[in-house]
Amino acid sequence: MPRLPAFGSYPDLPTLERAVVDCRACPRLVAWREQVARDKRRAFADWDYWGRPIPGFGDPEARVLLVGLAPAAHGANRTGRIFTGDRSGDWLFASLYRTGFANQPTSVARDDGLALTDAWVTAPVRCAPPANKPTPDERDRCAPYLDAEFDLLPWQVVVALGGFAWNVVLGHRGHEGARPRFGHGAEARLADGRVLLGSYHVSQQNTFTGRLTEEMLDAVFDRARALIG
């Protein structure tokens, strides 16, 4: 199995982005993302799918780091930008716009003019997985990329979008005291004293059922803004 560079091997964000985009470390994910890019969805038949791993996106000076799960097969795997081109991204970027972290409420393509201020969006797994379920080995092979973002960005607060992200962040950064439990609006201190916030994921399963509302999501980002001052 190909090995990824060790933590600290990426001197800057552009170098990290090139490494992510060129990665072929997980055969199952490579096969799936490329199959989806070939077969496409009828609604996007005219698109030239990205079909590669997805780098993080946002403000290189971000003090708030958002961590999701993995790219959507016909969202980021199509557009080439995290949370772009699907219903989850519609919810996420609309909230970031309302709370002052984004310059526009929509995200449909890499060149649509979206810019983030003081926020960076990423995922523990960089390729679209079958059934949106990466394996533990796939998550772990991607770990150096997330470690590098933690190292290269001046973040003070990390927002975990869902329990998967919450557990990944705790695994990477450690925590103070007993292991904190995930929940919407949960707040915990990481081992280095920085803050972890929890939010239900912006999946359709949560937003369509009302488990996650606009007000609930905005409240998490408002709390993140208050914490960074």
The CATH architecture category equals: 3-Layer(aba) Sandwich
Annotation, overall tally of beta strands: 6
Helix-residue proportion: 25-40%
CATH topology: Uracil-DNA Glycosylase, subunit E
Provide the CATH superfamily. Uracil-DNA glycosylase-like domain
Distance between the termini: 44 Å
Order of helices and strands: HHEEHHEHEHEEHH
Strand % is 5-15%
Categorize the overall geometry.
Answer: globular
Low-confidence stretches: 1-8
CATH class: Alpha Beta
- In round numbers, the mean pLDDT is 95
What is the gist of this entry?
Helix content is 37%, strand content 10%. By secondary structure, it is an alpha/beta fold. The chain has one domain: Uracil-DNA Glycosylase, subunit E (3-Layer(aba) Sandwich).
Walk me through what this model shows.
The structure is a single chain. The protein is α/β, with parallel strands linked by helices and 229 residues long. 37% of the residues lie in helices and 10% in strands. The chain is built from eight helices and six strands, in the order H-H-E-E-H-H-E-H-E-H-E-E-H-H. A hairpin with a 5-residue loop joins strand 5 (187-189) and strand 6. The longest helix has 17 residues, at 136-152. The protein is globular and about 45 Å long.
